[in-house]
Amino acid sequence: MTERNNEEIMDERYYTQEIFDLVRKTPDRKKLAKALSYYHDNDIAAALSYLTPKERKHLYDSLGIENTSHVFAYIDEDVDKYFAELEADQAADIIEEMDADDAADILEELSDRKAKEIIGLMEPEAKEDIELINSYADNQFGSLMTTNFIAVKTGLSLKETMKSLVEQAKENDNIGTIYLINDNDTLHGAIDLRDLLIAKSEEDLEAAVISSYPYVYADQIINDESLDKLIDYDEDSIPVLSERTNELLGVITAQDLAEISFDEIDEQPEPNEVEPPKENRFWTVLLVLGLLLTIVGAIVGHGSVAEDIARETAFIILLVAGAALSILGLYFAARKKEEVK
Questions:
Q1: What is the CATH number of domain 14-136?
Q2: Per-residue pLDDT band at 256 (split at 50, 70, 90)
Q3: What is the pLDDT of residues 105-136, one digit of tens each?
Q4: Higher per-residue confidence, 313 vs 163
Q5: Residue 2: how many other CB atoms lie within 10 Å
Q6: From CA 53, how far away is CA 35, in angstroms rounded?
Q7: CA-CA distances (angstroms) from residue 22 to 16, 54, 63?
Q8: What is the dihedral sign for C-alpha 216, 221, 222, 228?
Q9: Which of 85, 88, 145, 133 is nearest to 108 (CA)?
């Protein structure tokens, strides 16, 4: 996609126009960052294509690495172009701040050389999360999971559980459902954040835990049946377990499920988009049948004598039928030719 003209009418969103004007007219980074804090990251991402490379750099520098990573998670196209404008270490820092599943998606859009360069500059922990997701095929649930979730050890006091939640929330913001894990990191159950907040004792906490919480295995194949089942649960996230150890590896968010569902809908033909009918070849069938009947008649009548009335009759009927079908075939072929003209 080429850079768009400054005077081009931008009709995607009104917010996009406002963001475009703010970046152009606000040279002060702090003021720009404050002004942009009132806009959704998706709208800021939509404005990138209208800006010049210099203006995009001003935007990134104003937002900072963390907020820029949130914006990049919403980029749908021209990913390679935007990353080509970044220094390698800056690109690596942005990728590190992203959820592992979003980071993996971004890296897939880059050239192998660029992706390897960025991964080589990343911290080991962030690199491992991306490699884990990439270890699963696109048709396996492991490819959809994110490592952005909260997991607390079982057996902790209510105060210790809340402390662990607060510490993890600094890095992970998927906190609607809190997962409880055993000492070997296997899934014990899940508790809704609201139930955790109103719990007054360890007994209240344990009573609110759903021990039979739905889950999928990372290597499980995604199909309509399994996908519909997860959607029917209507949970904000579904845990993904290791197929070998039952260890909690990640979660699939409701947003991820919605996206893959919409992708499947997009692949279906529109109701009013009817496939064009195949060319009518009825006349060809008639000609072939006529020819076959003629050949069979010739075979039947070959070597017949005057006294062989049955063979003679069959010979005449087959020849007449073959000729009739051939004439009809030629007639329809002529009509088809006229329609084409």
A1: 1.25.60.10
A2: confident
A3: 999 999 999 999 999 999 999 999 999 999 99
A4: 163
A5: 5
A6: 20
A7: 10, 14, 13
A8: negative
A9: 133
- 167-208 pLDDT, tens per residue? 999 999 999 999 999 999 999 999 999 999 999 999 999 999
102: amino acid identity, one letter: D
Question: In whole angstroms, how large is the CA radius of gyration of the chain?
Answer: 33
Neighbours of 196 (CB within 10 A): 21
* CA separation for the pair 228, 231 (Å, rounded): 5
Q: To which residue do tokens 């006229």 refer?
A: 338
Closest CA to 81 of 110, 102, 103: 110
Distance between CA 150 and CA 193 in Å, rounded?
A: 10
In 112-202, where do the E strands start and end? 150-153, 177-181, 187-192
Measured between alpha carbons, how far is 102 from 197 in angstroms, rounded to an integer?
Answer: 30
Measured between alpha carbons, how far is 149 from 332 in angstroms, rounded to an integer? 68
Given CATH 3.40.50.920, say whether it is the number of domain 150-267. Answer: no
Place of tokens 């909690």: 248
> Which amino acid appears at position 136 of this protein?
Y
Q: Kindly state the tokens that stand for 79.
A: 């990913």
Contact 106, 77 (CB under 8 A): no
Give DSSP secondary structure letters for 87-112: -HHHHHHHHHHS-HHHHHHHHHHS-H
CA–CA dist 134, 155 (Å, integer)? 33
Beta strands in 206-273 (DSSP E): 216-217, 237-241, 248-253
> Checking DSSP bridges between strand 187-192 and strand 177-181, what pairing results, if any?
antiparallel
In angstroms, the Cα distances linking 324 to 30, 320, 337 are 89, 6, 20
- Tell me 126's DSSP state: H
The one-letter amino acid code at 282 reads F
* pLDDT above 90: residue 79: yes
